[in-house]
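Below: protein 1.
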Amino acid sequence: MNCRVLLIRHGETVWNAAMKFQGHRDVPLSDNGIKQARALAERLNKQEISAVYSSDLGRAIQTAGEIAQSRGLKVKALPGLREINFGRWEGMTFKEIKKDYPGLLKKWWENPLGTRPPEGECMSDLVERVTGELKQITSSHVNQQVAVVCHGGPIRALVATVLGMDLNQNWRIRQDNAALNIIDFPEWEKAILVLLNDRAHLENDLLPGFRWE
């Protein structure tokens, strides 16, 4: 197979900055998110990329567009690469969810694979659709490098899957806005994680959210 996937999380949105669950809500990039996407595109400027794929949500398409534009490529939007559907939790902060759904949140945190937010998806639903999409992408691009822009949930699910991790522990994989990840696929079952959550293209932003005090 020999396909290299540049797996990228979209730039920051206003809801990201406010720590709100987005899921399937189509929230656009913030001004900072646009800057992040452009910085990432500049970093990848000299890379040979055969195709650019994206979730069909605007924040991912905007980020992918910055990468595709200079190459004259068209972004191929795939609904299967969407973030997990958080249902009624979308638009809420973690604190608000903890207040209104304490029992369900605890259950979801311990077993996201089998726990479904109200009117939403469980992680097993997410894993099935995103792995299906990525398998199709890698099989269509033998001996090529492609960019795939999506969301934190799908990226954590994919990384955990190819590494054979317990998917209920996927939250241990940090994934920041505009982060670059690289996975090599000599074969699907022998995937190699080359790079994880790299944000070297973002000035003064090595560890976002970290506080010394």
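Below: protein 2.
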Amino acid sequence: MREKILTFIEKNSRIDLKELSIILGVDEIAVANELAEMEKENIICGYHTLIDWDKTTVDKVTALIEVRVTPQRGQGFDNIAERIYNYSEVTSVYLISGGYDLMVTLEGKSLRDISQFVSDKLSTLDTVLSTATHFILKKYKDHGTIMDKKNKDERMLVSP
């Protein structure tokens, strides 16, 4: 039942408990208890709302920063990742494969804010060897949701 609950709430965290229990064919209390248990076990770590900030008046810039670091003896990448994710500007940190070690997602009010964060805070960390900054210019799909759905032209084709 856990996997089914997780599959449904990953796409729609606002689904009604009663509706979810009907879909799963189980008692509503059982679903509520299972959700509470998964929250307690940190399987469910939070609930988020996906917002298209481009359609608001809020100035927000998102950047992906690739970071190459020197892992610390006996601790690997965990300590440096923790130092980075504790900055309020940082929205996510991932250990990745390839030419870089970490992928850091940042949000700021401007390109300058992001650049200043990278140069003043991120690049100055003693274990950081290099960074590469990529600014998000447009989001087409985010968390499985298409951000800019095209309206289909439903007019009838008229031939002369």
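The chain has two domains: 2-40, 53-139.
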